[in-house]
């Protein structure tokens, strides 16, 4: 594989407690369907924030708006005070990394190579330098490999550095995705259902891993359906229902909120959308399903 180079830093670090992510009024429409409506969300440095909601609530769409996969129809997303660019590789270079709901590894590359790929936004050697493999390139390549190995040690996959990604058990593939995201040296990590398909033991290990990532100084925003995982892990939890933020608060507040229970059980709650709005959304969804979808992770 080609790579690399000298480490470049992302945006300067946020002061403890300052907003790392500040999303304001984010709205995403697909034709007549409003998948995300006027959502505000902040993630402060040192925080782990959870984003929950029933299926189809707009969680992944919101993530896609934060990471440049979608350009929000309305609203603004700032990372450490600066408006994020609208292309995903620039968002990663700015300091926001993510994993996907469906694992997206380079399955025919080794574990180490997958992590090295994640470092490309932090390297600055040009094409000629890489082709000529001069001393600058070799030094940078060595540094990059050392950093990749540190990350593999951190997530517990160093012994499998030369295994093909596709031969790893499912839980380890998910860990490798996290290591690859960390390789871009982010200040904010977005995890989309990191424990999907994991057994309880793997889920507990992932919980520990996310705490360790937070302790490294990386703020975390996580989508997850596993409520025990979310409520153990998160300093704050926001609940999306039908594209809107219904509630936000600490775990106890959210768990005790009857509107959240109602949203999950499908029961009506005060100010719930009326039947006319529900019918409108269903019609728009049917129309969106019939239309060709953009080639993204959904
Ligand atoms: N590219 C797209 N084009 C049209 N509609 C879309 C697109 N992506 C998502 N949607 C619609 O937007 C709504 C929100 O979907 P989204 O995947 O963001 O929800 P989610 O909360 O992540 O769901 P889940 O928990 O099932 O993953 C759904 O009605 C979905 O069908």
Automatic annotation (TrEMBL):
SUPFAM superfamilies in the cross-refs: P-loop containing nucleoside triphosphate hydrolases
PROSITE patterns referenced in this protein's UniProt entry, alphabetically: ABC_TRANSPORTER_2
A Pfam family reported for this protein in Swiss-Prot or TrEMBL: ABC_tran
Region spans: Disordered: 271-298
Keyword Repeat belongs to the record: no
GO cellular component terms, semicolon-separated: plasma membrane
GO molecular function, one term: ATP binding
GO biological process: D-alanine transmembrane transport; L-alanine transport; L-isoleucine import across plasma membrane; L-valine import across plasma membrane
Residues passing through the membrane, by range: none
Top-rank lineage group of the source organism: Bacteria
Keywords attached to this entry: ATP-binding, Nucleotide-binding, Transport
Transferase recorded as keyword: no
Domain ABC transporter: 21-267
Name by which UniProt lists this protein: ABC transporter ATP-binding protein
